[in-house]
Write a structure and sequence with these properties.
Helices cover about 30% and strands about 15% of the residues. It is globular. Helix 1 crosses helix 6. The protein is an alpha/beta fold. InterPro entries: NAD(P)-bd_dom_sf, NAD(P)-dependent_oxidoreduct.
Length: about 270
């Protein structure tokens, strides 16, 4: 069966990619995982993940990359690292990857993106929003467009809300900060366990050529959520300010829940901690 997915390669075995790879191995897939560091190769090997050291900035790596892409499905799970000031390096990596993909055996691609591609337009955001809600200058949005432009494979883009769980403890995000804006703005968050669960369903159901939003059902206010999260870790809660116009978005997960018949493990962020 040409649409059967048996082999999966995960580009970027970090916060999301590593636990995802472990889950997919448990589910019976043959999983390859990439890392940029030599030290992590043994960790992948010990978890029965075929290890590859791949740096998309190093085009001398092309033979290793092509071997890594001898797979049925590629999951692209490495961020642009905007906060590290490395966004200028991101799109050249995506172009390099796209060229390799077009010459590979990959039939399905799952691109992990973010709801940060939307601006704060003070409304509920669905996958059918017009382009004026999108930040067209976002490197992530541009990367989505690059990867989707192919007749060689089918792509699903999965836009996650704010990532929480594992090493990402939300109580530490704003603890002790003052003059934090937008206290009443709703949060759009998703737990690591749901990230892994949703990806598993997309792959097992082979739902491609799609766009999905993935954020928890409920959207407590920033003040309510981050105050409680800090207190759960016995940290000083943030202090909010009411100054400035309201700016927010509410990410709808209705399409994902309906099409995948997915029920969130953590539908309410107030139960993340």
């Amino acid at each position: 069966m040409k649409n059967l997915i048996e082999r999966i390669s995960i580009l970027g075995c970090g916060w999301l990619g590593l636990p995802l790879a472990e889950q997919l191995v448990t589910a019976g897939y043959q999983v390859a995982g990439s890392t940029t560091t030599f030290e992590k190769l043994e960790i992948l090997r010990q978890k029965n993940i075929l290890p590859y050291q791949i740096n998309l900035l190093d085009q001398a790596n092309s033979e290793t990359l092509l071997e890594f892409l001898e797979t049925d499905c590629l999951i692209i799970s490495f961020p642009p690292r905007l906060r590290a000031g490395l966004e200028k390096e991101y799109l050249p990596q995506i172009h390099f990857l796209k060229n390799a993909l077009d010459h590979s055996s990959v039939k399905f691609v799952l691109f992990i993106s973010s709801t940060s591609v939307y601006r704060d337009v003070n409304q509920v955001i669905t996958e059918n929003e017009p382009s004026d809600a999108l930040d067209l200058a976002s490197p992530l949005y541009q990367a989505e467009e690059i990867i989707r432009e192919s007749s060689f494979y089918q792509t699903t883009v999965l836009r996650f809300g704010g990532l929480v769980g594992g090493s990402r403890q939300p109580g530490r995000f704003l603890a002790g900060k003052t003059q934090v804006p937008q206290p009443e703005a709703p949060v759009n968050l998703i737990h690591l366990n749901d990230c892994v669960g949703i990806i598993g369903q997309i792959i097992s159901q082979r739902v491609f050529n799609e766009m999905f939003h993935a954020a928890a059902d409920k959207h407590p206010s920033r003040q309510h959520f981050y105050t409680a999260a800090a207190q759960a870790l016995n940290l000083e809660p943030p202090q909010f300010t009411e100054s400035g116009p309201k700016a927010y978005k509410i990410i709808s997960n209705a399409k994902l829940k309906a099409q995948l018949a997915y029920e969130f493990i953590y539908p309410d962020p107030m139960f993340f901690f």
